Amino acid sequence: QLSDRLIRVANFVPTGMTVADIGSDHAYLPSYLCLQKHTPFAIAGEVNDGPYQSALSQVVRAGLQSQISVRKGNGLAVISPGEVDVITIAGMGGGLIATILDEGKLKLDGVKRLVLQPNVSADLIRKWLRENNWFLQAEDILEEDGKIYEILVAVPGDDLELYLSEEEKKLLLGPYLLKEMSEPFQKKWKSELENWKRILTQFEQAKESNEKLNQKRLEFEELIKMVEE
Ligand code: SAM
Known about the structure:
By secondary structure, the chain is of the alpha/beta class. The protein has 2 domains: about 5-160, Rossmann fold; about 185-229. The chain has helices spanning about 5-10, 30-35, 50-60, 95-105, 120-130, 165-175, 175-180, 185-205, 210-229; strands at about 20, 40-45, 70, 85-90, 115-120, 135-145, 145-155. The chain has a 7-stranded mixed beta sheet with strand order 3-2-1-4-5-7-6, with helices on both faces. Helix 3 links the parallel strand 2 and strand 3. The longest helix has 23 residues, at about 185-205. S-adenosylmethionine binds near residues 47, 48, 75 and 91.
């Protein structure tokens, strides 16, 4: 049984498209896609040997050897340009996902859709997408086992108009999620606010005051004001 989180990622993969799942671990997502969503061909990419071996075993167990190619390598190095329609990257930090995309830019030619599920720092991905001409087409957010996950879906194209006003706010919070204001969204940012306020109190209690600390304090005050709004 696939986690809710990965089912939600799978829901953004259109039927019939070929997929590369990067950082696939057990290859659960490609297996589910081939079995449930008629994905004709998938690549499961893994940089680490343990998860790579787990992916190989899972694919054999599911009898999907003819449909899923398990490959060992760093990020997008495991795919050739034009080989897949969709790239999924789930369960890592937003910074790492952005780095994988950036280092593999040349492999993105011909890719029709990115489905990205950062565990933290989704704003770094939104920033990368905007700077690299990917249009943020949809977002999703869910809570599972006490954790809140965001999913970002992007297609090639310019998305400047999404960010024309209140750019920073939208990069941080997500333009669609902000409009929807769902329960997990509110919960996520309330908890972030509590954290920042705690940090701010620590700054205020700090005995020494210097330029750097003051700057940080101001940044936190700004952030708190923006998210509270
Ligand atoms: N995608 C699965 C999921 O969402 O459940 C697995 C997530 S797991 C926490 C992250 C996986 O990404 C690990 O198996 C790790 O080995 C792999 N990984 C980390 N950096 C990677 C990279 N640069 N290229 C490929 N795989 C990577």
